[in-house]
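Lecture 7 notes: from sequence to structure.
We start with the chain below.
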Amino acid sequence: MLKTLFRTAVHLGIVAVLTLLTQIGGLAYAVAWAIRFWLFKRHRRSVVVLAGLFVVSYGFFWFAATKIAPLAGRVPIACLAASDAEPVEQSVLYCALNRNYVVPELAGIVTDLAAHMDREFPGTKTLILDAGFPFVDGFPLLPHLSHKDGRKVDLAFYYRSIDGRYVPGVTKSPIGYWAFEEAPEGYATPCPPGQDWKSLQWDMRWFRVFNSDLELDEDRTREALRWLTTSGRRAGLSKILLEPHLKRTLRVNSDVIRFQGCRAARHDDHIHIQIGTR
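Predicted C-alpha coordinates for the same chain:
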Protein backbone atom coordinates (compact mmCIF):
# COMPACT_ATOMS: atom_id res chain seq x y z
CA MET A 1 0.00 0.00 0.00
CA LEU A 2 2.74 2.46 0.98
CA LYS A 3 4.77 1.54 -2.11
CA THR A 4 1.75 2.21 -4.31
CA LEU A 5 1.15 5.58 -2.68
CA PHE A 6 4.82 6.47 -3.04
CA ARG A 7 4.88 5.53 -6.74
CA THR A 8 1.71 7.52 -7.34
CA ALA A 9 3.21 10.53 -5.57
CA VAL A 10 6.35 10.26 -7.71
CA HIS A 11 4.32 10.16 -10.91
CA LEU A 12 2.19 13.12 -9.83
CA GLY A 13 5.36 15.01 -8.98
CA ILE A 14 6.73 14.32 -12.46
CA VAL A 15 3.45 15.53 -13.98
CA ALA A 16 3.72 18.77 -11.98
CA VAL A 17 7.36 19.38 -12.94
CA LEU A 18 6.77 18.68 -16.64
CA THR A 19 3.73 20.96 -16.61
CA LEU A 20 5.74 23.81 -15.12
CA LEU A 21 8.61 23.27 -17.57
CA THR A 22 6.68 22.79 -20.80
CA GLN A 23 2.97 23.37 -20.09
CA ILE A 24 1.94 20.28 -22.11
CA GLY A 25 4.51 17.83 -20.74
CA GLY A 26 2.46 16.88 -17.69
CA LEU A 27 -0.52 15.96 -19.86
CA ALA A 28 1.71 13.96 -22.21
CA TYR A 29 3.20 12.07 -19.26
CA ALA A 30 -0.23 11.35 -17.76
CA VAL A 31 -1.44 9.95 -21.08
CA ALA A 32 1.68 7.79 -21.42
CA TRP A 33 1.25 6.58 -17.85
CA ALA A 34 -2.40 5.64 -18.51
CA ILE A 35 -1.57 3.87 -21.77
CA ARG A 36 1.14 1.81 -20.11
CA PHE A 37 -1.26 0.85 -17.32
CA TRP A 38 -4.19 -0.17 -19.54
CA LEU A 39 -2.55 -1.46 -22.72
CA PHE A 40 0.78 -2.78 -21.49
CA LYS A 41 -0.35 -4.71 -18.45
CA ARG A 42 2.69 -6.98 -18.51
CA HIS A 43 4.96 -3.92 -18.40
CA ARG A 44 3.11 -1.74 -15.91
CA ARG A 45 6.32 -0.96 -14.07
CA SER A 46 8.66 -0.74 -17.03
CA VAL A 47 10.45 2.61 -17.10
CA VAL A 48 11.60 1.98 -20.68
CA VAL A 49 8.04 1.45 -21.91
CA LEU A 50 6.87 4.55 -20.05
CA ALA A 51 9.72 6.63 -21.47
CA GLY A 52 8.97 5.48 -25.01
CA LEU A 53 5.27 6.19 -24.66
CA PHE A 54 6.05 9.62 -23.20
CA VAL A 55 8.26 10.56 -26.16
CA VAL A 56 5.50 9.59 -28.60
CA SER A 57 2.81 11.29 -26.53
CA TYR A 58 4.84 14.47 -26.07
CA GLY A 59 5.63 14.61 -29.78
CA PHE A 60 1.92 14.36 -30.58
CA PHE A 61 0.92 17.13 -28.16
CA TRP A 62 3.86 19.31 -29.24
CA PHE A 63 2.82 19.06 -32.89
CA ALA A 64 -0.83 19.64 -31.99
CA ALA A 65 0.15 22.78 -30.06
CA THR A 66 1.79 24.30 -33.15
CA LYS A 67 -1.54 23.93 -35.00
CA ILE A 68 -3.95 24.83 -32.21
CA ALA A 69 -2.11 27.74 -30.56
CA PRO A 70 -2.70 30.14 -33.51
CA LEU A 71 -6.43 29.53 -33.11
CA ALA A 72 -6.02 30.63 -29.48
CA GLY A 73 -4.11 33.77 -30.42
CA ARG A 74 -0.45 32.74 -30.20
CA VAL A 75 2.04 31.84 -32.90
CA PRO A 76 5.41 30.07 -32.62
CA ILE A 77 8.70 31.76 -33.41
CA ALA A 78 10.65 29.65 -35.88
CA CYS A 79 13.05 27.01 -34.61
CA LEU A 80 14.93 27.11 -37.91
CA ALA A 81 14.97 30.16 -40.17
CA ALA A 82 15.04 30.06 -43.96
CA SER A 83 17.00 33.34 -44.17
CA ASP A 84 18.92 35.83 -42.04
CA ALA A 85 16.00 38.24 -42.35
CA GLU A 86 13.82 36.06 -40.11
CA PRO A 87 13.98 35.83 -36.31
CA VAL A 88 14.89 32.39 -35.02
CA GLU A 89 15.17 30.73 -31.64
CA GLN A 90 18.69 30.72 -30.22
CA SER A 91 18.34 27.01 -29.45
CA VAL A 92 15.90 24.28 -30.45
CA LEU A 93 15.64 23.66 -26.70
CA TYR A 94 13.29 26.65 -26.42
CA CYS A 95 11.10 25.12 -29.12
CA ALA A 96 11.18 21.66 -27.58
CA LEU A 97 10.02 23.15 -24.27
CA ASN A 98 7.23 25.17 -25.96
CA ARG A 99 8.69 28.47 -24.77
CA ASN A 100 8.63 30.12 -28.22
CA TYR A 101 5.04 31.41 -28.50
CA VAL A 102 3.93 35.04 -28.78
CA VAL A 103 0.86 36.95 -29.90
CA PRO A 104 0.87 37.82 -33.64
CA GLU A 105 1.49 41.53 -32.99
CA LEU A 106 4.72 40.80 -31.13
CA ALA A 107 5.74 38.24 -33.75
CA GLY A 108 5.38 40.98 -36.35
CA ILE A 109 7.67 43.31 -34.41
CA VAL A 110 10.50 40.80 -34.03
CA THR A 111 10.11 39.78 -37.68
CA ASP A 112 10.43 43.40 -38.80
CA LEU A 113 13.41 43.88 -36.47
CA ALA A 114 15.21 40.88 -37.97
CA ALA A 115 14.56 42.15 -41.50
CA HIS A 116 15.82 45.63 -40.56
CA MET A 117 18.99 44.29 -38.96
CA ASP A 118 19.75 42.19 -42.03
CA ARG A 119 19.31 45.26 -44.25
CA GLU A 120 21.53 47.45 -42.09
CA PHE A 121 24.14 44.76 -41.45
CA PRO A 122 23.83 42.05 -44.14
CA GLY A 123 24.19 38.56 -42.71
CA THR A 124 23.00 39.51 -39.23
CA LYS A 125 20.90 36.90 -37.44
CA THR A 126 18.39 38.00 -34.79
CA LEU A 127 18.11 35.35 -32.09
CA ILE A 128 15.15 34.88 -29.75
CA LEU A 129 15.31 33.43 -26.24
CA ASP A 130 12.32 32.81 -23.94
CA ALA A 131 8.92 34.01 -25.15
CA GLY A 132 5.81 32.30 -23.76
CA PHE A 133 3.81 29.08 -23.65
CA PRO A 134 1.21 28.30 -26.32
CA PHE A 135 -1.91 28.47 -24.14
CA VAL A 136 -3.59 30.22 -21.19
CA ASP A 137 -2.91 33.77 -20.03
CA GLY A 138 -1.45 33.87 -16.54
CA PHE A 139 0.36 30.53 -16.79
CA PRO A 140 3.88 31.19 -15.40
CA LEU A 141 6.98 30.73 -17.53
CA LEU A 142 9.55 30.07 -14.83
CA PRO A 143 11.86 31.63 -13.79
CA HIS A 144 10.47 34.78 -15.42
CA LEU A 145 8.12 37.02 -13.49
CA SER A 146 6.16 38.44 -16.43
CA HIS A 147 6.19 36.03 -19.39
CA LYS A 148 2.61 34.92 -18.80
CA ASP A 149 0.58 36.08 -21.78
CA GLY A 150 2.60 35.83 -25.00
CA ARG A 151 3.18 39.60 -24.98
CA LYS A 152 6.79 39.46 -23.81
CA VAL A 153 9.90 38.07 -25.46
CA ASP A 154 13.64 38.11 -24.77
CA LEU A 155 16.13 38.96 -27.51
CA ALA A 156 19.74 37.80 -27.46
CA PHE A 157 22.52 40.34 -27.78
CA TYR A 158 24.61 40.43 -30.94
CA TYR A 159 28.23 39.36 -30.50
CA ARG A 160 31.60 39.64 -32.19
CA SER A 161 34.92 37.87 -31.80
CA ILE A 162 37.89 39.37 -29.98
CA ASP A 163 39.28 40.67 -33.30
CA GLY A 164 36.05 42.58 -33.95
CA ARG A 165 34.38 40.30 -36.51
CA TYR A 166 30.64 39.77 -36.12
CA VAL A 167 29.77 36.14 -35.31
CA PRO A 168 26.35 35.27 -36.80
CA GLY A 169 23.91 33.03 -34.96
CA VAL A 170 26.12 32.60 -31.90
CA THR A 171 25.75 33.87 -28.35
CA LYS A 172 28.31 34.27 -25.60
CA SER A 173 26.36 31.82 -23.42
CA PRO A 174 25.22 28.39 -24.66
CA ILE A 175 21.64 29.25 -23.63
CA GLY A 176 21.75 32.96 -24.42
CA TYR A 177 21.38 33.97 -20.77
CA TRP A 178 23.83 34.59 -17.91
CA ALA A 179 26.69 36.03 -19.98
CA PHE A 180 26.43 39.37 -18.21
CA GLU A 181 28.02 42.57 -19.47
CA GLU A 182 29.59 44.05 -16.37
CA ALA A 183 29.13 47.71 -15.56
CA PRO A 184 32.09 50.09 -16.08
CA GLU A 185 34.37 50.61 -13.12
CA GLY A 186 32.99 53.23 -10.80
CA TYR A 187 29.42 52.80 -11.97
CA ALA A 188 26.96 53.12 -9.09
CA THR A 189 24.45 50.29 -9.27
CA PRO A 190 20.84 51.25 -8.52
CA CYS A 191 20.49 48.20 -6.26
CA PRO A 192 21.84 48.09 -2.69
CA PRO A 193 25.01 45.97 -2.39
CA GLY A 194 24.76 42.58 -0.77
CA GLN A 195 21.09 42.07 -1.61
CA ASP A 196 21.54 39.54 -4.45
CA TRP A 197 20.42 36.57 -2.38
CA LYS A 198 17.11 38.29 -1.59
CA SER A 199 16.21 38.84 -5.24
CA LEU A 200 16.91 37.39 -8.68
CA GLN A 201 19.90 39.71 -9.21
CA TRP A 202 22.33 36.77 -9.16
CA ASP A 203 25.60 37.15 -11.04
CA MET A 204 25.77 33.40 -11.85
CA ARG A 205 29.55 33.33 -11.54
CA TRP A 206 29.61 29.54 -11.50
CA PHE A 207 28.13 29.56 -15.03
CA ARG A 208 30.93 31.63 -16.52
CA VAL A 209 33.00 28.54 -17.33
CA PHE A 210 30.38 27.79 -20.02
CA ASN A 211 30.58 31.25 -21.61
CA SER A 212 32.79 31.96 -24.59
CA ASP A 213 35.19 34.88 -24.98
CA LEU A 214 32.94 36.74 -27.40
CA GLU A 215 32.34 40.46 -26.96
CA LEU A 216 29.16 42.48 -27.20
CA ASP A 217 28.68 43.85 -30.71
CA GLU A 218 27.80 47.37 -29.66
CA ASP A 219 27.00 48.64 -33.16
CA ARG A 220 24.40 45.98 -33.89
CA THR A 221 22.92 45.94 -30.40
CA ARG A 222 22.65 49.75 -30.42
CA GLU A 223 20.93 49.71 -33.81
CA ALA A 224 18.46 47.06 -32.63
CA LEU A 225 17.57 49.22 -29.62
CA ARG A 226 17.29 52.32 -31.81
CA TRP A 227 14.84 50.52 -34.12
CA LEU A 228 12.84 49.09 -31.22
CA THR A 229 12.43 52.50 -29.60
CA THR A 230 11.29 54.12 -32.87
CA SER A 231 9.72 51.82 -35.45
CA GLY A 232 9.03 49.13 -32.86
CA ARG A 233 7.32 51.64 -30.60
CA ARG A 234 5.08 52.83 -33.44
CA ALA A 235 4.16 49.18 -34.05
CA GLY A 236 2.96 48.76 -30.46
CA LEU A 237 6.06 48.03 -28.39
CA SER A 238 5.49 49.53 -24.95
CA LYS A 239 8.50 48.58 -22.82
CA ILE A 240 12.12 47.47 -23.03
CA LEU A 241 13.94 46.19 -19.96
CA LEU A 242 17.68 46.80 -19.89
CA GLU A 243 20.26 47.51 -17.22
CA PRO A 244 20.94 51.27 -16.90
CA HIS A 245 24.69 50.91 -17.44
CA LEU A 246 24.08 49.37 -20.88
CA LYS A 247 21.68 52.16 -21.79
CA ARG A 248 24.54 54.58 -21.08
CA THR A 249 27.26 52.47 -22.73
CA LEU A 250 25.25 51.98 -25.90
CA ARG A 251 24.15 55.63 -25.94
CA VAL A 252 20.45 54.97 -26.37
CA ASN A 253 17.98 57.23 -24.66
CA SER A 254 14.25 56.57 -24.64
CA ASP A 255 11.55 56.46 -22.01
CA VAL A 256 10.57 53.06 -23.41
CA ILE A 257 13.79 51.60 -21.99
CA ARG A 258 13.25 50.88 -18.29
CA PHE A 259 15.13 49.40 -15.37
CA GLN A 260 13.47 46.14 -14.32
CA GLY A 261 13.99 46.78 -10.61
CA CYS A 262 16.10 45.15 -7.93
CA ARG A 263 13.71 42.24 -7.35
CA ALA A 264 13.95 40.91 -10.90
CA ALA A 265 16.73 39.13 -12.79
CA ARG A 266 19.56 41.12 -14.31
CA HIS A 267 19.01 42.44 -17.82
CA ASP A 268 22.55 42.96 -19.03
CA ASP A 269 22.64 39.58 -20.78
CA HIS A 270 19.57 40.04 -23.01
CA ILE A 271 16.90 42.53 -24.09
CA HIS A 272 13.34 42.10 -22.82
CA ILE A 273 10.63 43.65 -24.96
CA GLN A 274 6.86 43.65 -24.57
CA ILE A 275 3.67 45.10 -26.00
CA GLY A 276 0.57 46.34 -24.22
CA THR A 277 0.28 47.45 -20.63
CA ARG A 278 0.07 44.09 -18.83
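Points to note: The chain has a mean pLDDT of 91. The first strand starts at residue 75 and ends at 76.
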